[in-house]
Amino acid sequence: MQQELEQAHKWLSAGNSIVLAVVSKTWGSAPRAQGSLMVIHKNGHFEGSVSGGCVEGSVIAEAATLMEGTKSKTLEFSVATNDAWQVGLACGGEIHIQLFPLGEQDADALLAAIDHLGRRKAGELVLGKHPSRAFFVSDKSPDKAQAPLVETTSELTIAVRPSPMLYVIGAVHITQALTPMATACGYDVTIIDPRQIFVEDRTFEGAGIINDWPDEFFASHPLDRHSAIVTLTHDPKIDDAALKYALMSDVFYIGSLGSKKTHAARVERLRENGFSDKQLGRINGPIGLNIGSKSPAEIAVAIAAQLIAAFRGMHAV
Q: What stretch of H or E contains 57?
């Protein structure tokens, strides 16, 4: 979302008219979820996607007829199963796309949304239909679950959420396999390891690296409900320091590497530090889905799958 909003704001600030296309309804396993965006410039240039390539051409053509206008428009596409396979979709069905022509007066709303994403704050981008206008509302209840999109006869409201953050404790081999997977799935990844030798001259694709103790880092970088923590060092001094902060926060996922015996010992140490059974039950240990993983890459797949399941459950409505 942030990339599309930034491009939209850039074009609006330069005095250009745009149309913001929003996926408002999909079928089964559609390639783009509700709330997905595509921004279209008056010259036909665009950023983002609403169907993975199936209907973009039609959307751009319709958007051209709305430029400089004041009313939104709903496009409905029915795709037969055979046609869906031909354009790379998983199945046939319907997709509804709302088009909103926007002008310079809407730039501030988009800028507010971009600012919230940059500060890892949530909010709502409200798109009025008649006339077509954009407004931004800060999230006054940060603990509430947000539907990705809510539509009424007069407006469309899109939840603006920061990208999920994954903190990986330990710059180890599993981390090297997990990082590109998580990054490809849309997670911002930060690796924390106080051991200088583990972070020197090693590659962790797409991740930031913090050479510090996790408790010292989290003391000045508070965790939030859009964050997840994975501990992989096998060193209780490091992993437990991170888990104590995780258990006192509302992160949506906590996972710790180790056997059942190792995890039982870990739980007992944390219980002695005053954590309740309910809090300790939040830790996924041994970490990852049980798929018989052996190699670092296979373990990373199991962790990524469990992480995604937890994230999707967090936003279920």
A: helix 56-66
What is the block-wise mean pLDDT of the chain (317 residues), using blocks of 10 residues? 93 94 78 84 90 80 90 81 49 79 94 92 92 89 65 92 93 95 94 93 87 95 93 95 95 95 95 95 94 94 95 60
The continuous run of DSSP H or E covering 190 comes out as: strand 188-192
- The 3-state secondary structure of 78-145, one letter per residue: EECHHHHHHCCCCCCEEEEEEEEEECHHHHHHHHHHHHHHHCCCCEEEEEEECCEEEEEEECCCCCCC
CATH number of the structural domain 165-314: 3.40.50.720
Strand runs labelled E in 199-263? 207-210, 227-231, 253-256
Cα–Cα distances (Å) from 283 to 5, 223, 268, in that order, read 35, 16, 13
Tell me the domain boundaries of the chain.
Answer: 2-160, 165-314
